[in-house]
């Protein structure tokens, strides 16, 4: 699935549907290949619990880059759904 074309076309309902069918480790790998702004869009579209699971599979560098690109409210929501 081409996530970038769904993002560029603004087809966020289909993007969310597609993203939720992936397992967190595979989704983390796929999203890590996206530009930072596209990653933020994808994370905002994911259900909070799934986003938290995916975030845990990203490398520390990828996590830092994503946190820097996200807004404070998004980061708080993500961290609240992560395992301790």
Topology:
Elements: H1 3-8, H2 12-19, H3 24-32, H4 36-45, H5 48-57, H6 60-69, H7 72-80
Helix pairs in contact: 3-5, 5-7
Task: Describe the protein in words.
By secondary structure, the protein is an all-alpha fold. It has one domain (3-80). Helices cover 74% and strands 0% of the residues. The radius of gyration is 12 Å and the shape is globular. The model has no long low-confidence stretch (mean pLDDT 86).
- Strand content range: under 5%
Helix content class: over 70%
Low-confidence stretches: none
What is the overall silhouette? globular
Structural class: mainly alpha
Largest sheet: none
Global Rg? 12 Å
Distinct helical segment count: 7
Count the domains. 1
Summarize the model shown.
By secondary structure, this protein is mainly α.
Features:
single chain; 84 residues; mainly alpha; 7 helices; globular
């Amino acid at each position: 699935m081409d996530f970038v074309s769904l993002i560029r076309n603004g087809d966020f309902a289909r993007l969310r549907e597609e993203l939720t069918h992936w397992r967190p480790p595979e989704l983390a790998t796929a999203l890590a290949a996206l530009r930072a702004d596209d990653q933020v869009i994808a994370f905002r579209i994911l259900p909070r619990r799934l986003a938290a699971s995916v975030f845990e599979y990203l490398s520390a560098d990828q996590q830092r880059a994503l946190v820097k690109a996200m807004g404070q409210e998004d980061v708080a929501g993500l961290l609240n759904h992560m395992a301790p």
